């Protein structure tokens, strides 16, 4: 059972508020979960559409809020932004603290099916089911019928996968900064899928690989992806945006529905993200405010 929401802190930003909350998460096996929520200034009775930001490996709910540069554009557009954590914290599973790219800080936004991880590592349900219910129960001024999602690196993978696979078309649009787009074909994804999933790589490819999912999709889609050619992880073959783009075009999606932009010399950092942050918020505003 999910516990009550507790406000930890609040800070004014761009005429709105950034609030940090925590609660006992049923999806994460009863552990404390933290998230940040930016609420723009709203007139009485108004509700803001919601943009969900998923952060990358080693991050917490704070990285995107502190360094993403999203609040100015979000405030101007009247959009709320939710910043969840990237994994459960303190699950006590042997080995979860051994590597930076697996376990704590690296939940990969999937529901684990290996017994040792399945109690706590359910970030997919935490994001798509639990957090919306928590926000609704708190009666915050958010319109949950208007949601979109974006993210960075592992979080970009999460944003694309949740957008392409969530029930009832939960999200109106998705975007990503330097996403892991074909995780069943790269070292980070292979490690995560083999570690968390009883069905290993095949289960991961079938359920949590954006390139595999886009190849089977026929729904109308709205996706924007940016990556930098100076990104060492792109150069090492961790991101594989060309694979995603090839699968999308083969499935019949054109440049209007799915746009993948190569940004010369930009790297994997939040300097890159903040450069294109407003672009992504404005992209989502087209669909959140339609």
TrEMBL record:
Record has Lipoprotein as a keyword: no
Cellular component terms per the entry's GO annotation: cytosol
Leading EC class: hydrolase
InterPro entries, A to Z: AB_hydrolase_fold, Esterase-like, S-formylglutathione_hydrol
Location(s) in or outside the cell: Cytoplasm
Gene3D superfamilies xrefs: alpha/beta hydrolase
Secretion signal, residue range per the UniProt entry: none
GO molecular function: carboxylic ester hydrolase activity; S-formylglutathione hydrolase activity
E.C. code: 3.1.2.12
Reactions catalysed according to its record: S-formylglutathione + H2O = formate + glutathione + H(+)
Active site, per annotation: 153 (charge relay system), 231 (charge relay system), 268 (charge relay system)
Any GO BP annotation: formaldehyde catabolic process
Family stated for the protein in its record: Belongs to the esterase D family.
Protein name: S-formylglutathione hydrolase
